[in-house]
Amino acid sequence: MERRESYISTTDTEASFVTPLATPSQLPQTSSQLDINEDTPRSTRDNRSERSGAATPTVHRSASIVTEDTRRPQTAISTAPEVAKETAALSVGNPSQKAIDAASSTEKDASLTVAPENEDGQASKVTTLRGDSSHASETEVLTSEKEAVKSIKGEEAHTEPELIAPESEEVADNDGEDDVVYPGGLTLGLITLGLLLATFVVALDNTIIATAIPQITTVFNSLDDVGWYGSSYLLCTTSLQPSFGKIYSFVNVKYTYLIAVAIFEVGSIVCALAKNSPMLIVGRAIAGAGAAGIFSGGMTIIGFTVPLRKRAIYIALLSSMFGIASVVGPLIGGVFTDAPNLTWRWCFWINLPIGGVAMLSVFLFFKNPVRKQSKLTFIQKIAEMDLLGAAVLISAIVCLLLALQWGGTTYAWSDSHVWGCLLGFGLLITAFIALQFWRGERATIPPRIMKQRTVAAGCVFSAFLAMAIYTTIYFLPFYFQAVKGTSAEGSGIRTIPYLVSNTLASIVVGGIITWTGHYVPFLWAGSAIFAAGCGVLYSLQVDDGPAKWIGYQLLPGIGAGACIQIPFISVQVVLNSKDMPVGNALTIFFNSLGGALSISIAQNLFSNTLLQKLQEQIPGILPLEIIAAGATHVREATPPQYLDIVLGAYNSAVTKAFILPIAVSCLAFFCSLTYEWKTIKGKNLLTGGAA
């Protein structure tokens, strides 16, 4: 028979040791044998010696297991607090009364778990004997030599593909690391309401300002600063997200989230009270810093308040806030801007009551989870933050976004301002990556997490999907305003089919995932449908009627909604509770970065195509004057004899921009094929699992 070694791990608060068990040929043929730690009380040793009829040898924090069925070696895992210094060898196979009695003779909190190995040398069934019970419990689990070795080194076991029993396809609701008690009923509903309101107010802030900018530039005479109203917000939001992920891992989740919302509210107040353009830009930057911690914090709180098998629907609800805000944002902004008794400042004042209700709900009803890392001292937590890495990453993202903001608009792409920023980004991101490998587990983005297959695939998928979604949402209003001649509010109404189908698909798919447990098929189908839908949008024409432009929006809306929340779900499946905040923040970071990249790339495609088409058919400087008039005033700025040419040029420019979402949504589909096949339905596994 081929020699196989099984492992027994006995732990206390100080150390963890693993020793190979005897093979069948080396095992004594007695039905039971007792090896007692030298720290065991004499009375216990005497009693057990009399029972076994043999002398009691001495071992140090280790135990031997003797099987009744010597043809199958056993795997044993013993877990206990300090009292686990007492270890014993028990007769295993089918748990006998002797084994139960022996387990009961140890301290109350001690436990011994034994598992017969399957044909592959891995434990497929675990029998747990606890000192405070008279029965054994069994659960399906997989334990390997790799996990045993990790316990020697003091490393945490992280969920790997092989930790899932093939026949069950199930993962854990809890990793066993943190003591999580999930709320229910009204409490869960009020927590969810708070998270939805906070996410909604962040999403609303992104869309409501679009209709207010024309009036803001008139009041402050700041047309040249228009780009900074969005860029200052985006710079802070994108660059701070990974840092917030690390903060949520080690600092009080509840108060970190409340502080993030408070920072966002302070930024909104500064914007509402702005006396000039620089003050408004500073306010937008402050609001962006707070927004960086709100969405990732919401995902983290969901992880601690909702069992894994139910999280899909809650994540879908949270994600749907962006679609809802995209519909109502321009409408509310238009009302505030045009109403005689209100001004554009109410676009920021509205954030205060909504954010206040969100903060109150989370403060009163969310109970902060008790985690191992919560016991670290303040100095230890600071040491875990990787402040240097965060500073380098923030600098790198600022350089990249400045280059994208300036390139092709403020400066030519060949200008030193642009390529200098790009060069700075390259150097800084290289330094950041080196720092992450050097810092290891204390890095802002631990390499171990990024190497996890599903996390890496999810981040890339999220970036590609965001590039496609942001481009379609941004340029569909251009089609309606320039080509169809609608107002800003009218274009918002005409994009409702896209945004409503997106939101409904997200919620429906979230419910189906909660019911079935499977999310990977929706990732494949959603990205494929979205790619096809982007191809349909590319075929939009000047004279298309409502039937076409409504129908054309449904396909990409359904496709995007079906898969938009899945990267966030998958991260919570494959990572434990300690790593979950970092995984959430990483996914959101790549999502935001993809959106920032897409707008810059698509804007260049749009602008270059529009200028080229107009200059080919209209002489003189008139093309530049038409472009300067903007999409909403194109008809007033265009001579009647050139109107059809101008409308055709705008249509060509918009559809040319849609080439980008076609390409990246196809890349997202191929990326989805690399996902691990996982399911969110399962039970707590003894070895731990996903959070």
Automatic annotation (TrEMBL):
Composition skew (Acidic residues), residue ranges: 167-177
Keyword Membrane part of the UniProt annotation: yes
Location in or out of the cell: Membrane
Gene Ontology terms: cellular component: plasma membrane
Major subcellular site: membrane
Compositionally skewed regions (Basic and acidic residues) per UniProt: 39-51, 132-161
Presence of keyword Transmembrane helix: yes
Keywords: Membrane, Transmembrane, Transmembrane helix
InterPro entries linked to this entry: MFS, MFS_dom, MFS_trans_sf
Biased composition (Polar residues): 7-35, 59-78
Region (Disordered): 1-177
Domain annotation Major facilitator superfamily (MFS) profile: ranges: 191-680
Source taxon at top rank: Eukaryota
GO molecular function: transmembrane transporter activity
Topology with respect to the bilayer: Multi-pass membrane protein
Residue ranges crossing the lipid bilayer per the database entry: 180-204, 255-275, 281-306, 313-336, 348-366, 387-404, 416-435, 455-476, 496-515, 522-540, 552-575, 582-602, 657-675
UniProt name for this protein: Major facilitator superfamily (MFS) profile domain-containing protein
Origin organism lineage: Eukaryota, Fungi, Dikarya, Ascomycota, Pezizomycotina
